[in-house]
Amino acid sequence: MNILELRNITRQFPGVTALKDVDFQLRAGEVHALVGENGAGKSTLVKIITGVLQPTQGELLYEGQPVVWHDARDSIQRGIAAIYQDPAIFPDLNVAENIFMGHQPHHKTTRKIYWRQLYLQTEELMRSLNVHIKATDRIRGLSIAERQLVEIAKALSINAKIVIMDEPTSALSISESKELFRIIADLKRQGVSVIFISHRLEDIFQVADRVTALRDGTHVGTRNIGEVTLDGLVQMMVGREVTNLFPKIQVEQGREVLRVEGLARKGEFRDVSFQVREGEILGLYGLVGAGRTEVAKAIFGMTPPDRGAISIYGEPATIRKPQDAIAKGIAYVPEDRDKEGIILNMNVTSNITLPILRQFSRLGWLDNKGERKTAQEYASMLDVKSAGLHQHVIGLSGGNKQKVSLAKWLASQAKILLFDEPTKGIDIGAKSSVHRFISELAAKGYAIVMISSELPEILGMSDNILVMHEGLIKGYFSRKDATQEDILTTALADNA
User: Which fold has domain 256-492?
Assistant: First the structure.
């Protein structure tokens, strides 16, 4: 029996058809994966299911009856909950206050909140999920994985019949992802239906019963998970074979560019030492919390180290702030591109030229023509797809936002590139494009440090691999000797 059915859904925006005649069915108690490249229409479909948007045409049936959601409150009241990649929670409130925000148990006349009942219900929800988070814990002190569990508890607090999970594993470690999969299985046993959206296709094969692929706003197909292979699913999504996801170019490495010796920052990492040569891609792997991002930020001067030394081309470098790093030819492409990598409400040109704006200043006036020419050069180099250089980057897909973030630092002429999760949250077609570009940069002599939580990416792109665990480097592997088992064992073991 279908708990949710969408028939011939079309959604048009001025000049754009985001969805065209899309059908989608969700059975009671199933996990149904929704896949597609950025821009395929997944987000628009979710917004229609949750009442944020209304379809231009088509019909939505819920529990067998036609319905029209006027806004998100209508769908919530009927038991549809959405958990997004960035949890919509209040960091300075506690767990119980977040879970019951907007529907606290209260006196009908005086509106007085029954606090004891609220905390008891929260504890009951946590027990039902078999997780050990206290009702009084502040959200700010929780990990990303724990915050997602709070979001799931929030969904259960409204007796959700459908839970939509958007990129739930993108920031989780392997063990945290397994815990999430356990909870999804429990929800399924309780009769809750789950719509699971992820660019990590391997997760879909672990958790889903069926999968639906969208491409360019149209419904490509729906398959039972046992009837489709990974390659077949990729072909459904992109309309072609992605034959080389990791297009690694073999490069003869040159002289040493970056050397890090004994780098340490209290509470984050210690005794970190490594070197990177011209043409080398050094992979930095570790589970969430291993200290990888913290090392990159220290090298870039965002959070200066307490001790240790950095040398560039054999010369000591003092880096206390990002301006020092930029002046030394170091660029950092952060994991959280929307908050740290780009300025969403600025256009493509302004984002790309931001680190080198002084180059276009003439007696206090901005050389707009020269600025646009440079932006166009680097936007074309990375094949940034947009309505034009004037478009604000907030309107770009995840993959194109990442390309703008990359273009910005290439325009700065940096020679040392620190990439932190360079393909996080982007579709498989864009991943292949970003991988190809990183490999081409290495071939041109750039020295690259690539941080990634995805083992296939680390193995497929790196010349050498460092593995971190709890702030320490626990292993070093060359490309030819590295295996998935050895790297994962090193990342998990306390005494590796």
Answer: Rossmann fold (3.40.50)
